[in-house]
């Protein structure tokens, strides 16, 4: 797992349970805006496991670096925060680093104690689809 993502996981895992949700919501605005060529979700994959409309796209760049984009409505802060954690924690990550992220990432962060299991499953589905897209391109 990339060092930045591991740091985020450790911060959450060691935080008191009563502040975990507040910490999660700090990542709502970590999503960069979509480039114009992805407007309307052209070329993006929807994640149907999410309760809200959620779209993602990953591209393996030269040097095996992964570039990723996420789109989720602002009125879905928990789902946006999941994506924000990935966007921040996987910035400049390599294919191998993205594929090494454990599928129980959000459980390791202690989020299962702060949010519903359905939301955690949605976050895990985002990660799984991201990794599948990376795997298919590498």
UniProtKB/TrEMBL annotation:
<dbReference type="InterPro" id="IPR003808">
    <property type="entry name" value="Fe-S_metab-assoc_dom"/>
</dbReference>
<protein>
    <submittedName>
        <fullName>SufE family protein</fullName>
    </submittedName>
</protein>
<comment type="similarity">
    <text>Belongs to the SufE family.</text>
</comment>
<dbReference type="Pfam" id="PF02657">
    <property type="entry name" value="SufE"/>
</dbReference>
<feature type="domain" description="Fe-S metabolism associated">
    <location>
        <begin position="11"/>
        <end position="133"/>
    </location>
</feature>
């Amino acid at each position: 797992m990339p060092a930045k993502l591991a740091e985020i996981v450790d911060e959450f895992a060691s935080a008191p349970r009563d502040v975990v949700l507040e910490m999660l919501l700090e990542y709502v605005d970590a999503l960069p805006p979509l480039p114009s060529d992805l407007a309307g979700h052209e070329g993006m994959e929807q994640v149907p496991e999410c309760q809200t409309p959620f779209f993602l796209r990953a591209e393996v760049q030269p040097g095996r670096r992964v570039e990723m984009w996420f789109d989720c409505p602002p009125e879905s802060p928990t789902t946006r925060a999941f994506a924000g954690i990935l966007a921040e924690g996987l910035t400049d990550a390599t294919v191998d680093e993205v594929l090494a992220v454990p599928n129980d990432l959000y459980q390791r962060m202690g989020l299962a104690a702060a949010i519903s299991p359905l939301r955690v499953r949605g976050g895990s589905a985002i990660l799984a689809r991201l990794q599948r897209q990376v795997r298919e391109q590498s």
